[in-house]
Amino acid sequence: MVYVSTTTKQPRERLVTTSGDRGVGTGWLILAGVLVLAALVVALLYSGASAARQLGDPGALTRWGLPVAKALNNTAAAGTIGALVFAVFMVPRLVGVPGRKPKKEAAEHPAFSRVLLLAAASAVLWTLGALGVMVFTYSDAAGLPLSTDPTYTQGLAAFLTDFSTGRAWLVTSIVSAVLATILFGVRSQTGLALTLVVALLNLLPMALIGHSASGDDHNAAVNSIALHLVGVCLWVGGIIAVAAVGGKLGEQTLPVLRRFSALAGFAFFLVVGSGVVTASLRIPDLAQLGSQWGLLVPLKTIATLLLGGIGWMHRQWIIPQLKAPGGSAASKLSARRVLWQLITGGPGVLGAVSGPAAAPGRPAPPRAEALPPEAGPARILTGYDLPPEPTLGRWISEWRPDWLWITVALTLGIAYLLGVWKLGRRGDPWSKLKLVSWVFGLLLLTYFTSGAPAVYGMVLFSAHMIDHMALTMVVPLFLVLGAPVTLALKALGARRDGTRGIREWILVVVHSLPSRIITHPLFAAGNFVASIIVFYYSPLFGFALREHVGHELMITHFLITGYIFVLSMIGSDPVPFRAPYPLRILLLFATMAFHAFFGVTLMGSESLLEASWFGNMGREWGASAIEDQQVGGAVTWGLGELPTLILAIGVAVTWSRSDARETKRKDRAADRNNDADLAAYNSMFADLAARDTTPRRPGHQSTGRVPAAGSTVRGNTPAGKTAGEDE
Predict the structure, then answer these.
(1) Are residues 328 and 396 in the same domain?
(2) Which percentage of the chain shows pLDDT scores above 70?
């Protein structure tokens, strides 16, 4: 079949596809599946997990079923997420002419229908895989074959409710089932975007129970595993989606391949970086690379580099041949066949190393995962040894990397620089002060999430409040001044094929009803104030201290709340509603008063917040826990007042500049119409003066009132009369 543009105004490229493409893709997909199964068999035989055990043997069904269920779970998760990414960002929802926005009454695009079918089917398989892992994991851990005996089922129920591994797989199974149900009915892009968010969050339970997550540096391990899972799902899931919809894209083939190529590049660096972090956490000594678990590291590294090479070939050689206007149909067909081989061969390469990852936890990583016998109170509570007494130097030298926020800072920083570079190539200037402000804000974000405030914030309330107020008031101030949304809207081109890219999604979010609510200055200020009370005087504070997920959610909430508040005050990015300047000043002073009240309350309090945490750290240095909390109140007062005062000054300056711009606008309007408004105003007074000098009949008196500009002057003419009419 040959896809030809239906428009006659401009010639369009022809993309040749034949039915043979489907056969090539099917053959390579079968080969990829064979490689996955072969890798599983080799991994089980190599690790000894398939062999019968002398004690607590769960049976052959469990020994072989658990890795198969894990492989199914992992592949189906990638397929679900990859298909949703394509439905939300890559392929058009409706059929239309390329270059024009599809009409609302147009039919659903076949590629969109195919990716939604892939997403729904993958979600069903994800549910089955998670259920299989859940059941087989209990059988393997208990050393009992599958059975319907009441004792077995009672043990399984206890495993699902009392153990973190069982709860994690139960949650994964339930969420996967919900996703499968939703995907059989949802067709709107906004609904699919929310479903994609839920699918990505469903990877978190797997990150929390991984081998590395139970080691020494639990927080860093969970973050690295979570990032690794996201990168793999975006990459492999995208390849699966391309293979599934390749024959349905038509003239959308090139745009979709370009978009996926950019996504795959990001996923490649995410997988490599997170893999290095995970390996370094579990293998502190290079000599341990010779162990059974250690040999997996070079094997996965080779597979990742091979996949990266496939992506490089795809970007550097195949795409240019497909879009070359002078190329023959035969050469393009050859390029498409090689493209199919690379796309469908990618999962096969990854499948060659997926078997060891799917093996049931054997061999174990070299580093011990249990707490040492000499662990102190701080180690038991926080998972880390008590840091040394804070000094000026240690406020700079103490670091504990939070790889999630380091990744966020790097991604946002690189994206911002690329946007500035793109504007520069186009000849559009971008403020250097905004660039410096954005970069400095990201550096502060990295410091306050990975530096000394984060380290000491786990054991000192005062350090925690420094971290809190900085993430709420200081970091957002610099990020908002960077105007990232404005830069993105200028740098990113608008799509005309009915798909939604980053630019389109930004506009959807900005103009949405939730955005109109949360960015309203009254709501932003109320949320900013109420969040402190709700957080610190509820179980949420303890949840954020004890659980890594709670800690990351706390940082996210503080950062977003502060960003929205600052944006509503002095931001230049587009928002649905801008408050009048007097209202902004009033809200800022109200915020200052609240920070003072909250800080003074903590300074005078004799009741320790989260006493079971801060009161049991076993510190032999520094002030007592209650004295440290009182210091935290002073920190809250001081760090809350200074940034708020800076914001008030910023609002005043912006107000002054706004008045100056309005004056200049009126001056330019006066220059264009030769002061027509002023001339009309003076003419009105001249007419009034002339009428005042006109002789009046006896008894006729003037009221002395000056009519408004533009009104009809009638003098003392009675109602219903006109000027000059007899009384």
Answers:
(1) no
(2) 71
